[in-house]
Design a protein that fits this description.
Layout lengths: L2 E3 L36 E5 L5 H10 L6 E3 L8 H8 L13 H11 L17 E5 L1 H5 L4 E6 L12 E6 H12 L14 E3 L7 E3 L7 E3 L2 H12 L5 H4 L4
């Protein structure tokens, strides 16, 4: 796990207390987006009404390595179909008033692939999503809240981590965070250092084919990352800044 300078480094819960159903028809222009069946998107959940200007700015920083898609439905029967249908037209903001924990439960149950699956049709990320709250849209520069439950130092069980960052910085870290190359606790570390894990834990060696790799399941990737960071108890220790 090489330590580099910042410049070089480019839970399942009970849903019985159901969050409020979205009924707010906040108008947004969605002509900019089309759903690509072959793309894996970072879900974006808006806890407040978000102006189009925010998404215009977000689009400036995203690319093929960090595609983002606002989740515009909380329909537990077929959320993907409704999200697709809402692209290109005015659409509701169904997560108004939800908490991050409620969003996390929804994301785990209805968006991300099963932990033991690896294959086609992974429309949404396995470990990482974005939250937008009031502070995000009122701050200057604009912000995002990165959320990830990928393994981190000293964790005995799966835990959701949150990190509020300027939008540009947040998007910059999306790809590496989803590939488990970074730990949340080392992103923007006060030491100015970062830590990259190579090869990415989402890849696993192909038996009898030296140097060849294939995509691991989420469960396998978690174990790969736990093993990669097991020698250290904290980010400070791993970066040599304790």
């Amino acid at each position: 796990m090489p330590v580099t300078t910042r410049g070089q480094a480019q839970k399942d819960g009970d849903q019985s207390n159901s969050p409020p159903r979205g009924g707010n028809n906040f108008q947004q222009l969605a002509t900019r987006s089309k759903f690509d069946e072959g793309t894996t998107y970072h879900p974006v959940f808006c806890l407040v009404e978000v102006p189009d200007e925010y998404f215009d700015e977000l689009e400036k920083y995203t690319d093929e390595n960090s595609p983002c898609l606002e989740i515009t439905s909380n329909d537990t029967n077929d959320v993907l179909a409704e999200v697709k249908a809402n692209i290109g037209r005015s659409r509701p903001a169904p997560f108004l008033g939800w908490t991050v924990d409620q969003v996390y439960i929804f994301y785990k149950k209805h968006l991300r692939p099963a932990e033991d699956y690896s294959g086609p049709g992974e429309h949404f990320t396995r470990f990482t999503f974005i939250i937008v709250d009031e502070e995000c849209i009122k701050s200057s520069p604009l912000q995002c809240i990165l959320c990830s439950d990928a393994p981190d130092f000293g964790e005995a069980e799966t835990k959701l981590k949150q990190l509020r960052l300027p939008m540009e910085k947040a998007v910059e870290h999306l790809c590496a965070l989803e590939q488990l190359c970074f730990t949340m606790s080392t992103i923007e570390h006060p030491s100015g250092l970062s830590l990259s894990i190579m090869p990415p834990p989402i890849m696993k060696p192909v038996l009898d084919q030296p140097g060849a790799y294939k995509v691991a399941t989420a469960a396998e990737a978690r174990e790969n990352k736990k093993e990669a960071i097991s020698a250290f108890s904290s980010a400070d220790e791993a970066l040599g800044s304790s």
